[in-house]
Protein backbone atom coordinates (compact mmCIF):
# COMPACT_ATOMS: atom_id res chain seq x y z
CA UNK A 1 0.00 0.00 0.00
CA UNK A 2 2.78 2.37 1.01
CA UNK A 3 4.66 1.29 -2.11
CA UNK A 4 1.68 2.03 -4.31
CA UNK A 5 1.36 5.53 -2.78
CA UNK A 6 5.06 6.04 -3.52
CA UNK A 7 4.49 5.00 -7.16
CA UNK A 8 1.57 7.41 -7.47
CA UNK A 9 3.65 10.27 -6.01
CA UNK A 10 6.48 9.49 -8.43
CA UNK A 11 4.20 9.30 -11.47
CA UNK A 12 2.54 12.61 -10.51
CA UNK A 13 5.97 14.20 -10.04
CA UNK A 14 7.18 13.02 -13.46
CA UNK A 15 3.98 14.09 -15.25
CA UNK A 16 4.23 17.52 -13.59
CA UNK A 17 7.96 17.75 -14.47
CA UNK A 18 7.35 16.97 -18.14
CA UNK A 19 4.64 19.66 -18.33
CA UNK A 20 6.66 22.27 -16.39
CA UNK A 21 9.59 21.55 -18.75
CA UNK A 22 7.42 22.03 -21.85
CA UNK A 23 5.11 24.85 -20.80
CA UNK A 24 6.56 26.45 -17.67
CA UNK A 25 4.90 26.97 -14.31
CA UNK A 26 2.19 29.42 -15.40
CA UNK A 27 1.32 27.36 -18.49
CA UNK A 28 0.63 24.16 -16.52
CA UNK A 29 -2.59 23.47 -14.59
CA UNK A 30 -3.50 20.78 -12.06
CA UNK A 31 -5.95 19.37 -14.58
CA UNK A 32 -3.18 19.12 -17.26
CA UNK A 33 -1.11 17.14 -14.75
CA UNK A 34 -4.08 14.88 -13.95
CA UNK A 35 -4.61 14.16 -17.67
CA UNK A 36 -0.93 13.49 -18.36
CA UNK A 37 -0.46 11.25 -15.29
CA UNK A 38 -3.74 9.32 -15.62
CA UNK A 39 -4.60 10.20 -11.99
CA UNK A 40 -7.38 12.48 -10.70
CA UNK A 41 -6.97 16.09 -9.59
CA UNK A 42 -8.04 14.80 -6.16
CA UNK A 43 -5.01 12.49 -6.08
CA UNK A 44 -2.74 15.46 -6.83
CA UNK A 45 -4.21 17.56 -4.01
CA UNK A 46 -4.03 14.53 -1.67
CA UNK A 47 -0.32 13.90 -2.38
CA UNK A 48 0.98 17.41 -2.96
CA UNK A 49 -1.66 19.85 -1.60
CA UNK A 50 -1.10 22.51 -4.36
CA UNK A 51 0.59 23.23 -7.69
CA UNK A 52 3.10 25.32 -5.78
CA UNK A 53 4.05 22.40 -3.50
CA UNK A 54 4.35 20.12 -6.52
CA UNK A 55 6.68 22.64 -8.20
CA UNK A 56 8.71 22.84 -5.01
CA UNK A 57 8.96 18.99 -4.98
CA UNK A 58 10.28 19.08 -8.57
CA UNK A 59 12.89 21.73 -7.67
CA UNK A 60 13.89 19.70 -4.59
CA UNK A 61 14.14 16.59 -6.82
CA UNK A 62 16.45 18.59 -9.12
CA UNK A 63 18.70 19.65 -6.23
CA UNK A 64 18.68 16.12 -4.74
CA UNK A 65 20.25 14.80 -7.98
CA UNK A 66 23.62 16.43 -7.26
CA UNK A 67 24.90 15.12 -3.88
CA UNK A 68 25.17 11.45 -5.07
CA UNK A 69 26.87 12.59 -8.32
CA UNK A 70 29.28 14.82 -6.40
CA UNK A 71 29.94 11.95 -3.98
CA UNK A 72 30.69 9.65 -6.92
CA UNK A 73 33.22 11.99 -8.55
CA UNK A 74 34.54 13.91 -5.55
CA UNK A 75 33.95 11.60 -2.56
CA UNK A 76 36.57 9.46 -0.77
CA UNK A 77 36.02 6.49 -3.14
CA UNK A 78 37.03 8.58 -6.18
CA UNK A 79 40.40 9.86 -5.01
CA UNK A 80 42.46 7.38 -7.08
CA UNK A 81 41.80 9.59 -10.15
CA UNK A 82 43.38 13.08 -10.48
CA UNK A 83 41.02 15.82 -9.30
CA UNK A 84 40.91 17.79 -12.58
CA UNK A 85 39.97 14.64 -14.49
CA UNK A 86 37.22 13.92 -11.93
CA UNK A 87 35.94 17.49 -12.32
CA UNK A 88 35.71 17.17 -16.10
CA UNK A 89 33.98 13.78 -15.80
CA UNK A 90 31.53 15.22 -13.26
CA UNK A 91 30.72 18.11 -15.62
CA UNK A 92 29.76 15.69 -18.42
CA UNK A 93 27.62 13.63 -16.01
CA UNK A 94 25.79 16.81 -14.98
CA UNK A 95 25.37 17.86 -18.63
CA UNK A 96 23.81 14.50 -19.50
CA UNK A 97 21.46 14.77 -16.51
CA UNK A 98 20.39 18.22 -17.75
CA UNK A 99 19.79 16.82 -21.23
CA UNK A 100 18.05 13.55 -20.27
CA UNK A 101 16.47 13.75 -16.78
CA UNK A 102 13.02 15.32 -16.87
CA UNK A 103 13.05 16.31 -13.16
CA UNK A 104 16.45 18.00 -13.57
CA UNK A 105 15.28 19.85 -16.71
CA UNK A 106 11.99 20.94 -15.17
CA UNK A 107 13.68 21.98 -11.91
CA UNK A 108 16.04 24.24 -13.88
CA UNK A 109 13.15 25.88 -15.72
CA UNK A 110 11.15 26.36 -12.51
CA UNK A 111 14.20 27.86 -10.86
CA UNK A 112 14.47 30.40 -13.72
CA UNK A 113 10.77 31.17 -13.17
CA UNK A 114 11.20 31.31 -9.39
CA UNK A 115 9.56 34.72 -9.03
CA UNK A 116 6.21 33.08 -9.84
CA UNK A 117 6.43 30.49 -7.09
CA UNK A 118 5.76 31.73 -3.58
CA UNK A 119 7.45 28.72 -1.90
CA UNK A 120 11.11 29.50 -1.01
CA UNK A 121 13.58 27.64 -3.29
CA UNK A 122 17.07 26.46 -2.29
CA UNK A 123 19.87 28.95 -3.11
CA UNK A 124 21.66 27.99 -6.34
CA UNK A 125 25.37 27.90 -7.31
CA UNK A 126 26.79 28.21 -3.79
CA UNK A 127 26.89 24.41 -3.26
CA UNK A 128 28.46 23.90 -6.68
CA UNK A 129 31.10 26.56 -6.09
CA UNK A 130 31.99 24.85 -2.77
CA UNK A 131 32.20 21.38 -4.37
CA UNK A 132 34.35 22.59 -7.29
CA UNK A 133 36.57 24.61 -4.91
CA UNK A 134 37.26 21.42 -2.91
CA UNK A 135 38.24 19.58 -6.12
CA UNK A 136 40.54 22.40 -7.26
CA UNK A 137 42.12 22.57 -3.79
CA UNK A 138 42.83 18.86 -4.13
CA UNK A 139 44.38 19.46 -7.59
CA UNK A 140 46.42 22.30 -6.05
CA UNK A 141 47.67 20.04 -3.22
CA UNK A 142 48.64 17.39 -5.80
CA UNK A 143 50.57 19.96 -7.87
CA UNK A 144 48.18 19.55 -10.81
CA UNK A 145 46.63 23.06 -10.72
CA UNK A 146 48.49 25.99 -12.31
CA UNK A 147 50.27 27.34 -9.20
CA UNK A 148 49.29 31.02 -9.62
CA UNK A 149 45.52 30.24 -9.48
CA UNK A 150 43.28 30.76 -6.47
CA UNK A 151 41.13 27.59 -6.27
CA UNK A 152 38.00 29.40 -5.07
CA UNK A 153 38.04 32.11 -7.77
CA UNK A 154 38.85 29.55 -10.46
CA UNK A 155 35.99 27.36 -9.14
CA UNK A 156 33.52 30.24 -9.35
CA UNK A 157 34.60 30.93 -12.92
CA UNK A 158 34.24 27.26 -13.90
CA UNK A 159 30.73 27.12 -12.39
CA UNK A 160 29.74 30.36 -14.18
CA UNK A 161 31.02 29.15 -17.55
CA UNK A 162 29.42 25.74 -17.12
CA UNK A 163 26.06 27.29 -16.26
CA UNK A 164 26.32 29.56 -19.31
CA UNK A 165 26.92 26.56 -21.58
CA UNK A 166 23.70 25.04 -20.22
CA UNK A 167 21.60 28.12 -20.76
CA UNK A 168 22.88 28.83 -24.26
CA UNK A 169 22.65 25.15 -25.27
CA UNK A 170 19.08 25.05 -24.07
CA UNK A 171 18.20 28.18 -26.07
CA UNK A 172 20.03 27.10 -29.25
CA UNK A 173 18.89 23.48 -29.62
CA UNK A 174 17.32 22.18 -26.38
CA UNK A 175 20.77 20.94 -25.25
CA UNK A 176 21.16 18.38 -28.06
CA UNK A 177 24.76 19.54 -28.64
CA UNK A 178 25.63 20.12 -24.98
CA UNK A 179 28.46 17.57 -24.92
CA UNK A 180 30.12 19.29 -27.91
CA UNK A 181 29.68 22.71 -26.30
CA UNK A 182 31.13 21.42 -23.03
CA UNK A 183 34.10 19.90 -24.88
CA UNK A 184 34.77 23.31 -26.50
CA UNK A 185 34.59 25.00 -23.08
CA UNK A 186 37.07 22.62 -21.46
CA UNK A 187 39.38 22.96 -24.48
CA UNK A 188 39.70 26.66 -23.61
CA UNK A 189 39.68 26.37 -19.79
CA UNK A 190 41.85 23.31 -19.13
CA UNK A 191 45.13 24.66 -20.52
CA UNK A 192 44.84 27.56 -18.02
CA UNK A 193 43.87 25.29 -15.11
CA UNK A 194 46.45 22.56 -15.61
CA UNK A 195 49.96 22.89 -14.16
CA UNK A 196 51.14 20.86 -17.20
CA UNK A 197 48.60 21.50 -20.01
CA UNK A 198 47.40 18.28 -21.66
CA UNK A 199 43.71 18.91 -22.39
CA UNK A 200 43.90 16.93 -25.62
CA UNK A 201 44.68 13.75 -23.63
CA UNK A 202 42.20 14.24 -20.81
CA UNK A 203 39.11 15.42 -22.70
CA UNK A 204 38.27 12.42 -24.95
CA UNK A 205 38.60 10.09 -21.92
CA UNK A 206 36.56 12.20 -19.53
CA UNK A 207 33.75 12.76 -22.00
CA UNK A 208 33.02 9.04 -22.07
CA UNK A 209 31.70 9.10 -18.46
CA UNK B 1 3.82 68.18 -28.07
CA UNK B 2 5.50 65.26 -29.80
CA UNK B 3 8.52 65.73 -27.52
CA UNK B 4 6.33 65.62 -24.43
CA UNK B 5 4.71 62.37 -25.62
CA UNK B 6 8.22 60.95 -26.11
CA UNK B 7 9.14 61.97 -22.54
CA UNK B 8 6.00 60.31 -21.18
CA UNK B 9 6.73 57.11 -23.13
CA UNK B 10 10.30 57.07 -21.79
CA UNK B 11 9.26 57.69 -18.19
CA UNK B 12 6.63 54.93 -18.41
CA UNK B 13 9.23 52.58 -19.92
CA UNK B 14 11.73 53.28 -17.15
CA UNK B 15 9.14 52.95 -14.37
CA UNK B 16 8.01 49.63 -15.86
CA UNK B 17 11.63 48.46 -16.25
CA UNK B 18 12.47 49.24 -12.61
CA UNK B 19 9.42 47.28 -11.42
CA UNK B 20 10.00 44.33 -13.81
CA UNK B 21 13.62 44.23 -12.59
CA UNK B 22 12.55 44.17 -8.92
CA UNK B 23 9.41 42.05 -9.03
CA UNK B 24 9.32 40.25 -12.38
CA UNK B 25 6.57 40.29 -14.98
CA UNK B 26 3.86 38.53 -12.96
CA UNK B 27 4.59 40.60 -9.84
CA UNK B 28 4.09 43.94 -11.62
CA UNK B 29 0.68 45.48 -12.40
CA UNK B 30 -0.32 48.40 -14.60
CA UNK B 31 -1.41 50.25 -11.47
CA UNK B 32 2.06 49.72 -9.87
CA UNK B 33 3.59 51.24 -13.00
CA UNK B 34 1.17 54.17 -12.87
CA UNK B 35 2.07 54.85 -9.23
CA UNK B 36 5.84 54.57 -9.83
CA UNK B 37 5.79 56.77 -12.96
CA UNK B 38 3.39 59.43 -11.66
CA UNK B 39 1.19 58.92 -14.75
CA UNK B 40 -2.31 57.41 -14.95
CA UNK B 41 -3.19 53.86 -16.00
CA UNK B 42 -4.98 55.50 -18.92
CA UNK B 43 -1.69 57.03 -20.12
CA UNK B 44 -0.09 53.57 -20.02
CA UNK B 45 -2.86 52.02 -22.11
CA UNK B 46 -2.72 54.99 -24.49
CA UNK B 47 1.04 54.69 -25.08
CA UNK B 48 1.58 50.93 -24.83
CA UNK B 49 -1.88 49.24 -25.12
CA UNK B 50 -1.10 46.45 -22.58
CA UNK B 51 1.36 45.21 -19.96
CA UNK B 52 2.53 42.66 -22.53
CA UNK B 53 3.35 45.34 -25.11
CA UNK B 54 5.15 47.36 -22.44
CA UNK B 55 7.23 44.28 -21.52
CA UNK B 56 8.00 43.76 -25.20
CA UNK B 57 9.13 47.41 -25.48
CA UNK B 58 11.49 46.87 -22.51
CA UNK B 59 12.94 43.71 -24.11
CA UNK B 60 13.35 45.57 -27.43
CA UNK B 61 15.05 48.41 -25.54
CA UNK B 62 17.43 45.83 -24.05
CA UNK B 63 18.27 44.38 -27.48
CA UNK B 64 18.63 47.87 -29.02
CA UNK B 65 21.45 48.63 -26.53
CA UNK B 66 23.89 46.26 -28.24
CA UNK B 67 24.27 47.37 -31.90
CA UNK B 68 25.81 50.79 -31.03
CA UNK B 69 28.15 49.14 -28.47
CA UNK B 70 29.16 46.47 -31.00
CA UNK B 71 29.69 49.20 -33.61
CA UNK B 72 31.90 51.11 -31.18
CA UNK B 73 34.16 48.15 -30.38
CA UNK B 74 33.89 46.08 -33.57
CA UNK B 75 32.95 48.59 -36.29
CA UNK B 76 35.28 50.10 -38.91
CA UNK B 77 36.30 53.01 -36.63
CA UNK B 78 37.69 50.62 -33.99
CA UNK B 79 40.05 48.59 -36.15
CA UNK B 80 43.21 50.39 -34.99
CA UNK B 81 43.09 48.28 -31.79
CA UNK B 82 43.78 44.50 -31.86
CA UNK B 83 40.55 42.48 -32.08
CA UNK B 84 41.05 40.47 -28.87
CA UNK B 85 41.60 43.68 -26.90
CA UNK B 86 38.43 45.14 -28.43
CA UNK B 87 36.52 41.99 -27.49
CA UNK B 88 37.63 42.21 -23.86
CA UNK B 89 36.79 45.93 -23.72
CA UNK B 90 33.37 45.25 -25.24
CA UNK B 91 32.68 42.55 -22.63
CA UNK B 92 33.34 45.01 -19.79
CA UNK B 93 31.11 47.64 -21.43
CA UNK B 94 28.31 45.05 -21.66
CA UNK B 95 28.86 43.99 -18.04
CA UNK B 96 28.57 47.59 -16.87
CA UNK B 97 25.36 48.03 -18.90
CA UNK B 98 23.94 44.91 -17.23
CA UNK B 99 24.89 46.26 -13.81
CA UNK B 100 23.80 49.89 -14.28
CA UNK B 101 21.14 50.23 -17.03
CA UNK B 102 17.64 49.54 -15.75
CA UNK B 103 16.21 48.71 -19.21
CA UNK B 104 19.04 46.22 -19.88
CA UNK B 105 18.57 44.60 -16.45
CA UNK B 106 14.77 44.39 -16.77
CA UNK B 107 15.00 43.10 -20.34
CA UNK B 108 17.25 40.26 -19.17
CA UNK B 109 14.83 39.30 -16.42
CA UNK B 110 11.82 39.45 -18.77
CA UNK B 111 13.70 37.32 -21.28
CA UNK B 112 14.27 34.69 -18.54
CA UNK B 113 10.54 34.85 -17.80
CA UNK B 114 9.65 34.76 -21.52
CA UNK B 115 7.23 31.85 -21.13
CA UNK B 116 4.83 34.22 -19.34
CA UNK B 117 4.75 36.78 -22.12
CA UNK B 118 2.67 35.89 -25.17
CA UNK B 119 4.38 38.48 -27.43
CA UNK B 120 7.24 36.91 -29.47
CA UNK B 121 10.68 38.02 -28.21
CA UNK B 122 13.83 38.36 -30.34
CA UNK B 123 16.02 35.23 -30.39
CA UNK B 124 18.94 35.59 -27.98
CA UNK B 125 22.64 34.75 -28.28
CA UNK B 126 22.72 34.24 -32.05
CA UNK B 127 23.57 37.91 -32.76
CA UNK B 128 26.25 37.87 -30.07
CA UNK B 129 27.80 34.67 -31.38
CA UNK B 130 27.96 36.25 -34.89
CA UNK B 131 29.52 39.49 -33.59
CA UNK B 132 32.15 37.66 -31.50
CA UNK B 133 32.89 35.26 -34.39
CA UNK B 134 33.64 38.25 -36.63
CA UNK B 135 36.05 39.66 -34.01
CA UNK B 136 37.82 36.32 -33.57
CA UNK B 137 38.08 35.91 -37.37
CA UNK B 138 39.76 39.33 -37.44
CA UNK B 139 42.15 38.20 -34.66
CA UNK B 140 42.80 35.02 -36.64
CA UNK B 141 43.57 37.00 -39.83
CA UNK B 142 45.96 39.23 -37.83
CA UNK B 143 47.76 36.16 -36.42
CA UNK B 144 46.65 37.04 -32.85
CA UNK B 145 44.35 34.03 -32.29
CA UNK B 146 45.84 30.66 -31.29
CA UNK B 147 46.09 29.05 -34.74
CA UNK B 148 44.43 25.70 -33.84
CA UNK B 149 41.16 27.42 -32.78
CA UNK B 150 37.99 27.58 -34.86
CA UNK B 151 36.74 31.20 -34.50
CA UNK B 152 33.05 30.26 -34.50
CA UNK B 153 33.30 27.52 -31.85
CA UNK B 154 35.55 29.69 -29.70
CA UNK B 155 33.06 32.56 -30.08
CA UNK B 156 30.16 30.37 -28.95
CA UNK B 157 32.16 29.30 -25.91
CA UNK B 158 33.06 32.90 -25.03
CA UNK B 159 29.39 33.95 -25.30
CA UNK B 160 28.28 30.98 -23.14
CA UNK B 161 30.85 31.69 -20.45
CA UNK B 162 30.10 35.41 -20.47
CA UNK B 163 26.37 34.78 -20.11
CA UNK B 164 27.04 32.37 -17.21
CA UNK B 165 29.09 35.04 -15.40
CA UNK B 166 26.11 37.37 -15.69
CA UNK B 167 23.58 34.89 -14.34
CA UNK B 168 25.71 33.73 -11.44
CA UNK B 169 26.77 37.31 -10.57
CA UNK B 170 23.13 38.35 -10.51
CA UNK B 171 22.21 35.45 -8.19
CA UNK B 172 25.20 35.91 -5.86
CA UNK B 173 25.19 39.69 -5.28
CA UNK B 174 23.01 41.44 -7.88
CA UNK B 175 26.12 41.87 -10.14
CA UNK B 176 27.99 44.13 -7.73
CA UNK B 177 31.19 42.08 -8.32
CA UNK B 178 30.63 41.47 -12.03
CA UNK B 179 33.84 43.25 -13.14
CA UNK B 180 35.89 41.04 -10.79
CA UNK B 181 34.12 37.91 -12.02
CA UNK B 182 34.68 38.93 -15.63
CA UNK B 183 38.37 39.59 -14.94
CA UNK B 184 38.66 36.06 -13.48
CA UNK B 185 36.97 34.61 -16.58
CA UNK B 186 39.30 36.36 -19.03
CA UNK B 187 42.31 35.34 -16.92
CA UNK B 188 41.38 31.70 -17.70
CA UNK B 189 40.18 32.16 -21.31
CA UNK B 190 42.70 34.62 -22.77
CA UNK B 191 45.81 32.43 -22.50
CA UNK B 192 44.00 29.81 -24.62
CA UNK B 193 42.73 32.36 -27.14
CA UNK B 194 45.91 34.35 -27.64
CA UNK B 195 48.55 33.24 -30.15
CA UNK B 196 51.12 34.79 -27.75
CA UNK B 197 49.56 34.68 -24.24
CA UNK B 198 49.82 38.02 -22.44
CA UNK B 199 46.55 38.29 -20.48
CA UNK B 200 48.29 40.04 -17.60
CA UNK B 201 49.12 43.01 -19.87
CA UNK B 202 45.79 43.25 -21.68
CA UNK B 203 43.31 42.80 -18.82
CA UNK B 204 44.04 45.80 -16.56
CA UNK B 205 43.93 48.11 -19.62
CA UNK B 206 40.74 46.65 -21.11
CA UNK B 207 38.85 46.71 -17.84
CA UNK B 208 39.13 50.51 -17.73
CA UNK B 209 36.74 50.91 -20.68
From TrEMBL, chains A, B:
Transmembrane segments: none
Keyword Cell inner membrane set for record: no
Span of domain HTH tetR-type: 6-66
Protein origin, superkingdom: Bacteria
PROSITE patterns reported for this sequence: HTH_TETR_2
Coiled coil residues, start to end: none
GO molecular function: DNA-binding transcription factor activity; transcription cis-regulatory region binding
Keywords: DNA-binding, Transcription, Transcription regulation
SUPFAM superfamilies according to UniProt: Homeodomain-like, Tetracyclin repressor-like, C-terminal domain
DNA-binding region: 29-48
Keyword Transcription: yes
InterPro entries on file: ArpA-like, CprB_TetR_C, Homeodomain-like_sf, HTH-type_TetR-like_transc_reg, HTH_TetR, Tet_transcr_reg_TetR-rel_C_sf
Family annotation (NCBIfam families): ScbR_bind_reg
Protein name listed in UniProt: TetR family transcriptional regulator
Source species taxonomy: Bacteria, Bacillati, Actinomycetota, Actinomycetes, Kitasatosporales
